[in-house]
């Protein structure tokens, strides 16, 4: 479960970073380019990704 949280957190973080980059206009070629709404959505996704990844890293392992 811990590894899954870290992987999902990393994927959400990377996707959010791309959304934020497109929203700011740094990554061209999409309908999201230059639209600040996508920057805010991406920023929220980055925060969620960090929380999920951090929870996977900090959470103690279960004893089998």
Which structural class fits the helix and strand makeup? mainly alpha
**C-alpha-based Rg, rounded:** 14 Å
Strand content: under 5%
User: What is the β-strand count?
Assistant: 0
Number of domains: 1
Helical residues, percent: over 70%
Shape: elongated
State the major sheet.
Answer: none
One letter per element, helices H and strands E, the order comes to HH
Q: Between the first and last Cα atoms, what is the distance in angstroms?
A: 13 Å
Number of helices, where a helix is a run of at least 4 consecutive DSSP H or I residues: 2
Mean pLDDT figure: 92
Low-confidence parts, pLDDT < 50 over ≥5 residues?
A: none
Describe the structure.
This protein has 64 residues and is mainly alpha-helical. The chain has one domain (2-58). 72% of the residues lie in helices and 0% in strands. The protein has 2 helices and no strands. The protein has helices at residues 2-24, 36-58. Helix 1 (2-24) packs antiparallel against helix 2. The protein is elongated and about 50 Å long.
